[in-house]
Design goal:
The complex is a heterotrimer of chains A (about 240), B (about 1000) and C (about 100).
Chain A lengths: L3 H7 L8 H14 L5 H6 L13 E3 L8 E7 L2 E7 L4 H12 L9 E4 L2 E7 L2 E6 L8 H4 L4 E5 L4 E7 L3 H5 L17 E6 L2 E9 L3 E7 L3 H12 L4 E7 L1
Parallel strand pairs in A: 2-12
Antiparallel strand pairs in A: 1-12, 2-8, 3-6, 3-7, 4-5, 5-6, 8-11, 9-10, 10-11
Chain B lengths: L1 H9 L20 E10 L2 E7 L3 H7 L6 E2 L6 E2 L12 E4 L6 E5 L9 E5 L25 H4 L7 H13 L14 E13 L3 H11 L5 E4 L15 E2 L2 E2 H14 L3 E4 L2 E7 L3 E6 L15 E13 L3 E3 L12 E3 H10 L7 E6 L2 H12 L3 E7 L6 H9 L3 E4 L2 E6 L6 E5 L5 E5 L2 E5 L2 E3 L12 E3 L4 E3 L7 E3 L9 H18 L33 E3 L4 E2 H9 L5 H8 L12 H12 L3 H4 L13 H5 L11 E2 L3 H6 L3 E5 L2 E6 L8 H14 L2 E4 L4 E6 L3 H8 L11 E8 L5 E11 L2 E6 L4 H15 L6 E4 L4 E7 L3 H6 L18 E6 L3 E6 L8 E7 L3 H11 L6 E2 L2 H10 L38 H4 L4 E8 L11 E3 L12 E9 L4 E9 L8 E6 L4 E8 L14
Chain C lengths: L1 E4 L3 E4 L4 E5 L12 H9 L7 E7 L7 E7 L5 E6 H13 L1
Antiparallel strand pairs in C: 1-2, 3-4, 4-5, 5-6
The chains are: A alpha+beta (about 240), B alpha+beta (about 1000), C alpha+beta (about 100).
Pfam family, one (chain C): SoxD
InterPro entries (chain C): SoxD, SoxD_sf
Protein name (chain C): Sarcosine oxidase subunit delta
Chain lengths: ~240, ~1000, ~100
């Protein structure tokens, strides 16, 4: 595996680039960073937001298949985009032209594979990418149009699926997730167990993703374990 | 449920009479093939699956179940539902012991343990029943009249004595081992109650495709259909209910929540309910919760919660064996239990005669029927007399005999002559009260319906309809019809095509009745409220003493209080007060009903939030390292912050903190300050925005520089302080204190969205994105140099005090470096992306090793800021101005900003206001305490003499003594003067000298090297 | 109570925090008088009936909202983004 520190620092791939090309770029970058010693590379290991809080494997009620599957996300890129006054249309145009993504309206998310835009607040979106460096060009591309703030390390991200995913989420999410009220491409900013979350649905499986502030990851995981226990759940680490 | 319902038809005989002497040979919805052993007060007994504890006790001939609250009178089972005031027991044992459990609601399970309450030494021989002899002093208002003098005895003697004598159950001594859950549910139509009206409503709504939730507090759905011998469309009521449940279960958008009590109705279609997921099991299944609290949001609701029968008020109406007539039918028909072998019925309606008929049908003996009405349908009289029963019309029951259980009743006939009739059970039929509690939760009042002599729902909450008995429609045909109609209307209102189908055939019935509010001449104490031991005489006393308004009556007599909230007693109390005041019942009015409908365990409200999950905990990026290194943490809001890092051999926290401070002051230390709020401010008008929210000027702040910032509230007091750094032309980062981070963000959003929407500014919280560490001490730069990437010059010249820059560390990791200092030393704050927080901390510790680096926590941080006289939370307490804190000089004069005008109010500019100063004990060995008040040396302690307060203290390793900062009148002018730090709470009175609040490096030479 | 956030949809009132009457306007600028500022900070009507009030969707989109609510019944008539209300008010004054 390449050193993510150097990956992050030196690659300049666009928002639309594929994970495979970024991998190649990062190994180039790693060799060009000859200055950084072996020891310091070891020392500067990034720590995943879920590290220390989660245990991979099968937990909770042991009978039958796990009702809930929790996939820990790591290594993704995240940025807040806030449109400058009156620049929503410009922002829309640039994102569409350069990155092929359209701005979702309030309460919606546009997800394609591991990339996406998720509505956060009026004039505000969360850009999601398979790795942080994919978002590096955004501030420059959107200069004068939107404020871009890197949030790649600010959230812990978990993907939730399985036949009991919705029943489990109902224990903490006050928003109606019934297919008549919510569905793929829908997003909500709300709270679970008094912890602020951003939540979006990827597919009709249903598969959801939840982003929670990094400092709350341990407590949020405590809630997840409590809520999922009666259904039986499987935790799998997942670097996208 | 289906299997239960079908059980009645099969009617197998397996019980021997020795086993359960009061169990009928056949019948009931219990499963006679599944016996259940249980114990009551240690006695081993057997019942059946499908029993409640109450029905199983009655089947075993146990009538005496508890002792009453005040008088310790023997009490039995009054009802068969959640309204039960008497049969409260302790269920289970050890950590799962649960007091005040209604035996009528507790499902029987194998191994159930129940214990009677409020008796000593035993239920049959209760020493405290002597209270009954003292009943004159326990009358209404006894708390207020007795035990009042001498006052000192209240806490020491009276209160403990009353608590022992008049307690109910005992809570468990150990933590509850079970878990409790929360869940949210949304639906189109919420149906409250699973009786005939509720089932009909759910069917009508469910068939339309609407999302329906039906909640029922019983474990078997059907309500009174399970308790009556009635037919619907040619099948038994129980069978009809089973078929309805089966159909509802087949509809994908219908959810039935059994064992679930809807306890509260809230604004805009929000409801609270508690599901007893595992209460019917000895121990919850692994990973299953014991109870689940539901928050339901419904567009429409159908209230079909039924009705509660009214007791008669006569002498000894609380004797074990005296029951509600409907409950008697429940025990006979649903549970196959005879509540008595010689049953008497006391009725003021045709309903009571149904009980007589059911008792005969079940093979029980009927001793008598006493009807308050003079005219009774002849066929009913014939039925009773054919069974050998005495029939009295136009009379009433005046008294009941039998110490531990009913043995006879004293009946007064229409000619005022009294006779005594032997019986071991008495069924009271005095009409029914619709359950108006839930529809009254939003401060609505029920209205009186003279036709049925009962309160019925008045103006219902928006979106709610009532149906069936809850609406005062008592016949089965009306229940089915109004239920179906309400269900269809509710679904239609939600946009579904629904219709109420034709109601199936039911046999005709009469619900006519003429209530007798109380026996005219009772023999003995006639109880109104069984649970609170409030008798008719107590209501009379309250009337005599002027407590006539209904809310006063309740508080004075305790009528309608406690766990049952007067479900069986309220109307009786009102009717007596009406009679005494010469008013009618609606003029007396009702008290306000509030949630919860029945008691809800605190555990259910807490849910997952107990123990370490009581509230969320936030961890700093260096948490893992801190834990590995034996750190002692402190809770700061939700954060768990490192407080200090003890090393081997350090036995006292002060040793550790002193070492940490000395190391920072002479070498270098690092401290995790990630908990500070960090706000990214961008946009064309970013500077204008900052100028308006900060009280000091920023127009001159160049790119690459940071500045201290003070924010005022609009009323002129200080809100918070922090720093603002300018990273680019239109890009700033503001920090806020840990405690105020969220508040400051909310305030800035208020300013951006509401006050100045014309400003083009974008705010984003970056608190979680960046790990931020203070690196402080003379060797701070040397330490940092070893991790900052080559190419970034951090020399004093290139990166002077208050410089700010975006750099990289560790071979390309983006970082931000600010040369700011809270400790007063050469110091930096280094921010790295949070994922590298752990790595950066470890790298700094390694980089600083040659210089003797230490990690320091919030304690050392606090000591050093006190040594420097920096105001923090104790000083920025919402009551101090910038001037009070010595910050007056830095405020801008030429711009408008939040708080500008109001800080100039006369009282806030009074030169006599307490102002920040430092304090040193005159005797260096004295310890200072925060919270001490300042007095002149010769002053008597008084509010007038109070000159201010010590806000923060620390042991200063630099000065080798305790030091403090605080607010004292004209503090800046009085350096060198001596005053007392007077602390009566901790018995301290210390002479201190006022000094500058800056104890260390007042010329700030260390900052700039 | 349930409040229909114009951005997030209907949410429980636990997601919101309350500020109060939306009528008072801050007297901006160096020429504002102390008296006007005093009134803005402290003077509030407390009507039994319809009130336009400021709420903050703290646990949601962090929007400030103007909620028109009957203080007697809690019936909510309208919920508008405060920024839109403030802008409309400013442009109304300019016109």
């Amino acid at each position: 595996m390449s050193d993510p520190a150097t990956t992050r620092a030196s690659s300049s791939q666009a928002f639309s680039s594929q994970a495979s090309s970024s991998q190649a770029a990062s190994s180039q970058a790693a060799s060009s960073q000859a200055a950084s010693s072996q020891a310091s590379a070891l020392l500067w290991r990034p720590r995943g937001a879920w590290e220390g809080a989660t245990k991979p494997g099968r937990h909770g009620a042991p009978d039958g298949a796990a009702g809930v599957r929790l996939t820990l996300r790591d290594g993704f890129g995240l940025a807040t985009l806030i449109a400058a006054d009156g620049k929503d249309a410009d922002l829309q145009a640039i994102l569409a032209e350069r990155f092929g993504l359209s701005l979702p309206e309030a309460g919606a998310a546009q997800i394609e594979g591991e990339r996406g835009l998720i509505w956060s607040a009026p004039g505000q979106w969360l850009a999601l990418a398979p790795s942080p460096h994919v978002l590096r060009d955004l501030p420059e591309a959107l200069r004068g149009v939107a404020a871009v703030t890197d949030q790649s390390d600010s959230r812990a991200l978990v993907r939730i699926s399985g036949p009991q995913a919705r029943a489990m989420l109902a224990k903490g999410v006050a928003v109606d997730l019934h297919p008549r009220a919510f569905g793929p491409g829908r997003a909500a900013v709300t709270s679970i167990a008094h912890i602020g979350v951003q939540l979006w649905q990827r597919d009709a499986g249903p598969t959801y993703e939840i982003a929670v502030a990094r400092s709350f990851a341990g407590s949020f995981w405590g809630w997840l374990e409590h809520a999922a226990a009666e259904f039986g759940y499987e935790v799998e680490p997942g670097r996208v | 449920m289906t299997t239960l319902a079908l059980q009645r038809a099969e009617a197998p005989v397996s019980a021997t009479s020795a086993d359960q002497p009061f169990r009928t040979a056949t019948g009931g919805l219990i499963d006679r093939n599944r016996p259940r052993d249980f114990s009551f007060d240690g006695r081993r007994l057997t019942g059946y699956h499908g029993d409640t504890l109450a029905s199983a006790l009655l089947a075993n001939g146990v009538r005496l179940v508890g002792r009453s609250f005040k008088y310790h009178r023997p009490r039995g089972i009054l009802s068969a539902g959640s309204e039960e005031p008497n049969a409260l027991v302790e269920l289970r044992s050890g950590a799962r012991r649960e007091p005040n459990t209604r035996a009528t609601m507790a499902e029987l399970y194998e191994g159930l343990e129940a214990t009677s309450q409020n008796r000593w030494p035993s239920l049959a021989l209760d020493a405290l029943s002597v209270n009954a002899l003292l009943s004159p002093i326990f009358a209404a208002g006894f708390y207020y009249k007795t035990f009042m003098w001498p006052a000192g005895l209240w806490e020491k003697l009276y209160e403990p004595m009353i608590r022992r004598a008049a307690g109910l159950g005992r809570a468990a001594d150990a933590p509850d081992p079970d878990t409790y859950d929360h869940a949210h549910a949304h639906c189109d139509v919420l149906v409250i109650g699973g009786g005939p009206a509720g089932l009909a409503a759910a069917l009508a709504a469910g068939r339309s495709g609407a999302r329906v939730i039906l909640v029922d507090e019983d474990f078997a759905t059907g309500g009174r259909l399970l308790a009556e011998r009635r037919e619907i469309g040619g099948v038994s009521g129980a069978e009809w209910a089973a078929r309805a449940v089966a159909e509802l279960e087949s509809l994908p958008e219908v959810r039935i929540l059994t064992r679930t009590t809807l306890f509260g109705v809230y604004d805009h279609g929000a409801y609270g309910a508690v599901e007893r997921v595992s209460d019917h099991l000895a121990v919850p299944a692994p990973h299953a919760p014991r109870q689940r609290l539901w928050r339901i949001v419904a567009r429409r609701a159908v209230l079909a919660a039924g009705a509660i029968e009214r007791p008669h008020v006569f002498g000894g109406n609380d004797r074990p064996g005296v029951m509600l007539a409907g409950a008697v039918r429940t025990y006979l028909n649903r549970y196959g239990v005879l509540p008595g072998r010689r049953l008497a019925v006391f009725t003021s309606s045709d309903d009571g005669w149904r009980t007589a008929a059911d008792a005969i049908a079940a093979g029980g003996g009927l001793a008598a029927v006493i009807d308050t009405r003079t005219s009774v349908p002849p066929h009913l009289r014939r039925m009773a007399e054919a069974a050998g029963a005495r029939v009295v019309t136009g009379g009433y029951v005046a008294g009941a005999k039998g110490h531990l259980g009913l043995s006879a009743i004293q009946v007064v006939d229409g000619y005022h002559s009294t006779e005594t009739i032997a019986c071991d059970g008495l069924a009271m039929a005095n009409g029914w009260n619709p359950v108006v509690h839930l529809d009254s939760h939003l401060s609505r009042r029920p209205v009186w319906d003279e036709a049925i002599h009962a309160f019925v729902p008045g103006a219902l909450p928006s979106g709610m309809q009532a149906a069936g008995a809850a609406a005062g429609r008592f016949t089965l045909a009306e229940c089915l019809e109004t239920g179906a109609r309400a269900g269809a209307e509710a679904a239609t209102a939600c946009g579904f095509e629904a219709s109420a189908e034709a109601v199936p055939q039911t046999d005709p019935e009469s619900v006519a009745h003429t209530p007798l509010w109380r026996a005219p001449k009772p023999r003995g104490k006639a109880f109104v409220d069984f649970q609170n031991d409030v008798a008719a005489s107590d209501v009379e006393l309250a009337h005599r003493e002027g407590f006539r308004a209904v809310e006063l009556l309740k508080r004075y007599t305790t009528l309608g209080m406690a766990t049952d909230q007067g479900k069986t007693s309220n109307l009786a109390g009102l009717s007596i007060m009406a009679e005494l005041t010469g008013k009618d019942i609606p003029s007396v009015g009702t008290t306000v009903f509030r949630p919860p409908f029945t008691p809800v365990a605190i555990g259910a409200f807490a849910g997952h939030h107990r123990g370490k999950e009581f509230r969320a905990t936030r961890h700093v990026p260096s948490h893992a390292w801190a834990e590995e290194n034996g750190c002692v943490f402190v809770e700061t809001g939700l954060w768990l912050r490192p407080a200090y890092f003890p090393k081997a051999g350090e036995t006292d926290w002060l040793d550790t903190v002193v070492r940490e401070v000395e190391t920072v002051r002479t070498k270098v230390g690092i401290c995790d300050v990630t908990t500070l709020g960090k706000i990214d401010i961008q946009g064309r008008d970013a500077l204008a925005f900052i100028e308006r929210v900060c009280a000091n000027p920023f127009g001159t702040l160049p790119v690459g520089k940071a500045r201290y910032a003070v924010l005022l509230r609009e009323d002129g007091f200080v809100m918070d302080d922090g720093t603002v750094a300018r990273l680019a032309e239109t890009h700033y980062v503001m920090t806020a204190s840990t405690a105020n981070a969220a508040r400051v963000m909310q305030h800035l959003e208020f300013c951006r969205q509401w006050l100045w929407p014309e400003l083009d500014v974008q705010l984003a919280s970056i608190s979680e994105q960046w790990a931020q560490y203070a690196v402080a001490g003379p060797r701070a730069r040397d330490t940092l140099r070893r991790i900052v990437d080559p190419g970034f010059d951090i020399s004093n010249q290139a990166f002077p005090f208050l410089a700010a820059a975006e750099i990289t560390v560790g071979g390309g990791i983006p970082a931000r470096l600010f040369r700011i200092s809270f400790s007063g030393e050469l110091a930096y704050e280094l921010a790295v992306p949070a994922a590298y927080g752990d790595a950066a901390w470890r790298a700094l510790m390694q980089a600083g090793l040659p210089y003797g680096i230490t990690a320091y926590g919030s304690e050392a941080l606090s000591v050093m800021r006190i040594e420097k006289g920096h105001a923090a939370g104790a000083e920025i307490n919402g009551q101090t101005t910038a001037r009070d804190l010595g910050l007056g000089g830095m405020l801008a004069k030429k711009k408008d900003y939040i708080g500008r005008l109001m800080k100039e109010r006369p009282a806030l500019t009074d030169p006599d206001r307490p102002i920040l100063a430092g304090f040193r004990p005159v005797d260096p060995s004295d310890r200072l305490r925060a919270g001490a008040h300042f007095l002149a040396l010769d002053a008597e302690p008084s509010l007038e003499a109070d000159e201010g307060v010590m806000t923060s203290v620390a042991y200063s390793p630099s000065l080798r003594s305790w030091i403090g900062i605080g607010l004292i009148r004209r503090g800046t002018e009085r350096h060198g003067e001596r005053v007392r730090a007077y602390d009566p709470v901790r018995g301290a009175d210390i002479e201190v000298e006022i000094c500058s609040p800056v104890f260390v490096d007042p010329k700030e030479e260390k900052l700039r090297v | 109570m349930r409040i229909r956030c114009p951005h997030c949809g209907e949410r429980d009132n636990g997601e919101f925090s309350y500020l109060g009457d939306a009528a008072p306007r801050r007297p901006d600028g160096m020429e504002a008088s102390a008296q006007a500022m005093h009134d803005y900070v402290y003077l509030r009507d407390n009507p039994a009936g319809t009130l336009r009030e400021l709420w903050y969707h703290a646990a949601g989109c962090r929007s400030w909202l103007v909620v028109t609510r009957d203080t007697r019944t809690h019936a909510i008539e309208a919920v508008e983004p405060a920024r839109d209300v403030a802008r409309a008010r400013s442009s109304g004054e300019a016109a």
